[in-house]
Amino acid sequence: MEHDQEPEECLVQTQMYCVKRPVYNQELLQGQLHKKEKTPQPLSQKIAHSCRCSSKKAKSHLYSFLPILKWLPRYPVKAYLLGDIVSGISTGVMQLPQGLAYALLAAVPPVFGLYSSFYPVFLYTFFGTSRHISIGTFAVISLMIGGVAVREAPDEMFNIMESNSTNSTDLLENYKARDSMRVKVAVAVTLLSGIIQLSLGLLRFGFVAIYLTEPLVRGFTTAAAVHVFTSQLKYLLGIKTKRYSGALSVLYSLIAVLSNITKTNIASLVVGLTCIVLLLSGKEINDRFKKKLPAPIPMEIIVVIIATGVSAGMNLSSTYEVDVVGHIPTGLLAPTGPDITLIPAVFIDALAIAIVGFSMTISMAKIFALKHGYTIDGNQELIALGICNSAGSFFQTFAVTCSMSRSLVQESTGGKTQIAGTLSSIMVLLVIVAIGYLFEPLPQTVLAAIVMVNLKGMFKQFGDITHFWKTSKIELAIWVVAFVASVFLGLDYGLLTAVAFAVITVIYRTQRPQYRILGQIPNTDIYCDVEEYEEVKEYPGIKIFQANASLYFANSELYANALKKKTGVDPCAILAAKKKAQKRHAKELKQTNEHRKKTVLKLTNDMETSVKHEVLNDELPLNGKSADANAQGTSPDELEHFMEPMTNVHCIILDFTPVNFVDSVGAKKLKSVIKEYEEVGVCLCIAGCSGPVVDDLTRLNFFEKSTRNLLFHTVHDAVLSCQLKIVSVPQTASDIC
Asked: Keywords on this record (predicted)?
């Protein structure tokens, strides 16, 4: 790009600017700064220091492990108690039907859903740091547990075949044995997932949730919604089919339901559809008038009470063969140890459940913490979930996590602290010990309707496709892969596939970064992309190259190629063109001399032979010598044409501001690039290196005596230095370096 000012005027302005603002390179800064002396601490001393305990440290650890000790003594009763009571009751009336319904997803009898809605919720009050989330049963986790239970205890193991008849006493005994085994599997998975969460929390591994990005989680939960909806179709229609798990389970379930569609129980279907209409109407009323209603209408518990009364009054179970919840034992079960022999078979599933459960919890907890102005400890949340699941498993619970719908209700109805969750668990306890038997006539199709309606929010996530299409194609790819893999491969392998793909996208982004040539905004020291802004100008003879990625083995070659392409200076091409032009020029000179020699010999035939030959012999060596000299000397117009990029660009500045690290391969490639450009008279400078990057380069023996002079603190420092060199030393490009 041309510049309007004369070189002398540029030199004067640059020197005047440098007087006001010194140019800082790495060598100058190292001469002025002195590193602090740090005495390395021995390992034994570090261990002794970490094991040292004081009253203040012990109190801090105790408050961290039991957050209730910190906030309960300061609990403002007058300001918070009423809101917590209203919120606890509202959440409790949702816990009851959802606990019963999600037990079907977990492939265990409904009463175990009530157990899972009491013990973990009560324990979270003591160990959790979030004031607004509602811990308990959740569709995605329940479905994942149900998949494991069905896989480890299939119907075939207990001689249960697909049939719509349950009158046989032996068949009922087989059902009881199957349910008992599935409870053992669910409890074993819960114990192991709790231990994993507790271990990760104690080891401060709360950061693992970052690998489950928002597009991945949303795609995964949308796929889980498809699994859940498909699994509930048989309860809605009153059809008895085998429950499938693993890869292609959605297709197998659909085929099984469609093949038995003629056996649909009309009474179950009518009751289920009626409940769906009532629940959707209630949700619509709550959404539309949420500002006017003091609390959301508890439509789920209303539907459960009405359906239970209708079922008991009309005797739907006997008259219309509608499947009901059945026996609900009164009181709590005595604690028993989980069957640890099942742990090796369910380890991978427990790991996936632990990570997904924690991801759901921490994401909702952070949303409410940001909204209400308090902090969340991710490691403590892992510990809290681990204790809830591992301790709850001894009381026959299955794995729990945060429920999005209940958390929104708990927060919107005025809940201020974990007291609201405690009150909701007490409501569930009252049902278990006193009135649980009243829900025995409840039709299972009602529970299926509750589950299906609660999937409404997850199905709305299909709208993410258009959102990510407009904002980020890579995030759209993550969403689609998470959804498709989880639908067809199952939730466990689908999650692993989605995480692996998300990691691959990170590698892809570092291998395909944005490469830019920067220019200066006039009268500032700010540099932007020259292709993006019209006001940005480049300095003559200077190119500023930037890549928004680190330099390492996966992208070092791509970095070098992009540098040559963006700057328009390819040292290899320039050297090759130079050699080619020199050879061609030498060949032309040789042909010219040979032609001249023949012409001279021919002319001497008409003159005195002795004199002319003598003169000719004296001149031939001179002509040959000059030919060789010319071959290696000044190049013709063709050579100058090939050398034009080299003469236009004298300095290239590499902006390392976005670079986070450099490995050995990247350092070697950078050294090689600097050497290549020096051979064609182009000087390379590095600007904006962070301290860790400089340390990486130093450790990799990148710097030589002259190399550190090319390292500048900022891009503007490098530009000023290059301007001084270009303007004050205009002889040759090679002199600049």
From this structure: Membrane, Transmembrane, Transmembrane helix
> Does 466 lie in the same domain as 448?
yes
Q: Which of 508, 540, 556 is at the close of a domain?
A: 508
Give the pLDDT score at 408. 85
The pLDDT value recorded for residue 615 is 44
Q: What's the rounded Cα separation, in Å, for the pair 481 and 501?
A: 8
Give the separation between CA 717 and CA 29, rounded to whole angstroms: 12
- Classify residue 291 by its DSSP letter: T
DSSP symbols for 269-318 = HHHHHHHHHHHHHHHHHHHHTTTT-SS---HHHHHHHHHHHHHHHHTHHH
CA distances from 479 to 138, 207, 456, 459, 500 (A): 21, 21, 18, 14, 13
**Of 508, 535, 560, which residue sits at a domain end?**
508
Number of domains observed in the structure of the chain: 2
pLDDT at residue number 727: 67
| CA–CA separation, 496 and 486 (whole Å) | 9
Q: Does residue 271 share a domain with residue 388?
A: yes
> Scanning the structure block, which residue is given the tokens 């607004």?
132
Closest to 164 measured CA to CA, from 239, 228, 73, 231: 239
pLDDT tens digits along 594-618? 766 666 555 555 555 544 444 444 4
Low pLDDT (below 70) residues in the chain: 1-35, 38, 50, 161-168, 595-647, 705-707, 727-737
Are 697 and 675 in a shared domain? yes
How far are the Cα atoms of 108, 272, 453 from residue 307, in angstroms, in the given order?
22, 10, 16
Q: Is there a single domain that holds both residue 87 and residue 205?
A: yes
Say how many C-beta atoms besides its own lie within 10 A of residue 202's C-beta.
Answer: 13
Locus of tokens 């044409």: 641
The pLDDT value given to residue 575: 80
345 vs 353: CA distance, rounded Å: 14
* pLDDT for 112: 93
Range of the domain at 388: 76-159+173-330+342-508
CA separation for the pair 391, 9 (Å, rounded): 80
Do 479 and 560 fall within a single domain? no
Strands (E), 678-727: 683-687, 711-712
Structure tokens at 41: 């601490």
Q: Which of 208, 246, 736 lies closest to 488 in space, CA to CA?
A: 246
Q: Which helix (H) or strand (E) holds 446?
A: helix 444-453
CATH number of the domain where residue 719 is located: 3.30.750.24
The dihedral built from the CA positions of residue 709, 712, 713 and 719, taken in this order, carries a sign that is positive
Contact 717, 24 (CB under 8 A): yes
**Residue 103 near residue 142 (C-beta atoms within 8 A):** yes
433 and 558 share one domain: no
Residue 686 CB partners (closer than 8 Å, separation 6+): 653, 654, 656, 670, 710, 711, 712, 718
Q: Return the bridge partners of 517, or none.
A: 545
The answer to whether the CB of 231 falls within 8 A of the CB of 105 is: yes
β-bridge pairing 401-402 and 135-136: antiparallel
Same domain, 435 and 548: no
The burial of 535, by beta-carbon neighbours within 10 Å (0-12 exposed, 13-18 middle, 19 or more buried), is given as: exposed
The per-residue pLDDT for 219 is 92
* Rounded-to-integer distance, Cα 178 and Cα 158, Å: 6
C-alpha 485/C-alpha 496 separation (Å) is 9
Inter-axis angle of helices 119-127 and 419-430, nearest 10? 160
Largest CA distance in the chain: 143
Task: Give me the amino acid identity at 245.
Answer: S
CA–CA–CA angle 412, 418, 423 (5° rounding) = 85
- Domain shared by 504 and 519, yes or no: no
Helix (H) or strand (E) holding 581: helix 571-603
- Mention every residue, 6+ apart, whose C-beta is less than 8 A from residue 643: 574, 577, 578, 635
How open is the CA angle 560-564-568, to the nearest 5 degrees? Answer: 165
Q: Is residue 133 part of a domain?
A: yes
How many alpha carbons fall within 13 Å on the CB side of residue 62? 9
